Amino acid sequence: MLHINHVITEVTDTGDRRDRGAAPQSLPAQWVRSLSKQARVALMIALSLTIAMQHAAGEQARLLHPQPFKVIYQADYKGLPISATGIRELSWQNLEGAEAPLYTLTSSALSIFAKFTEQSDFVMIDGTARPQFYRYDRTGLGRNKRIRLNFDWDQNQVNDLDSGEHWPLADAQISDRLLYQFQLQTDLLNQGADIALGTQHRYQIQDQDTLKDYIFSVKAKVTLETPLGLVETYEIVRSNDQEKRATTLWLAPAFEYMLVRFEQTSSDGENFSLAIEKAYLNETPITDFSAGAPSS
Question: pTM, whole model, 2 decimals?
Fold first, then answer.
């Protein structure tokens, strides 16, 4: 950071600059010395605040979030001995008149017996993924289920498009039932490749009319064997999961914390897992984890 004394004592030839019509680039030392002690202190405080704000703005501009990706998984639902395919994809588009791109995160699993699809449309605001629309569809196993939620930030409420019910948006950083995984990925990406074990991240999830707290803890570093080779991952668990359920994610820091494996087990048999088979980052295929992420 630029030292404040350098800012206020650097001398410029203001006369020559004024003759040329140019504005002074720093404060003349003679003028600064002519100020009272109180005025100099006030000036130093004002300049310090200005520099701090510029520094913060620079840091904000450097916030990262994952590039578009598409990952294909071997999916398993309830332990069925059938081949199922899971796909997770991030894309974005610039809409006419919109101030920011609209991102879409989808997750799906398909087999001959069942189909599951989940989608979150969102925008990025100061490093936070803000949901705009969420949908969930499940058919084929047990009771079919359908959810449509519209997040109306102008009216500060979330609307259930099927029931017509609506509930207040309690917080500007609310996530939905899928989007929290992208937010976790984004938060870890901005922490860097080395994450201290025990690090926690907390998210508030809008699950229809219920708000839920999800807390994730970085448990261990684990090397996984995959069809794309060995990959270093962080094993991350939901530490406040229900007593009879366990949720675990394995994310690869060298690949923007891409989800490599996901497992959710429950004592009532509602088990679901994903294991990576193919992956694309910015439409470029990842063929070998040991070769590193493709350049953007």
Answer: 0.76
Mean pLDDT, to the nearest integer, of 259-283?
A: 89
What span, in angstroms and rounded, lies between the C-alpha atoms of 277 and 192?
A: 25
Report how far residue 137's alpha carbon sits from residue 144's, in angstroms, rounded to the nearest whole number: 8
Return the H-helix or E-strand segment holding 85.
Answer: strand 84-93
Cβ neighbours of residue 38 closer than 8 Å, sequence gap 6 or more? none
pLDDT digits (tens, 9 = 90+) for 59-88: 444 688 899 999 999 988 776 656 689 999
The answer to whether 260 and 281 are in contact (CB under 8 A) is no
Beta strands in 111-226 (DSSP E): 115-125, 128-139, 145-152, 157-160, 166-168, 200-207, 210-226
Count Cβ atoms within 10 A of the Cβ of residue 70 and give its class: 0-12 exposed, 13-18 middle, 19 or more buried. Answer: middle
Residue 175 DSSP label: B
Q: Residue 118 has what DSSP assignment?
A: E
Report the amino acid identity of residue 148: R
DSSP classification of residue 100: S
Distance CA 115, CA 128 (A): 30
Burial of 197 (0-12, 13-18, 19+ CB in 10 A): exposed
Q: Which is nearest to 75 in space by CA: 87, 65, 85? A: 85
Q: Which residue has the higher pLDDT, 182 or 7?
A: 182
Q: Across the strands, what pairs with 224?
A: 231
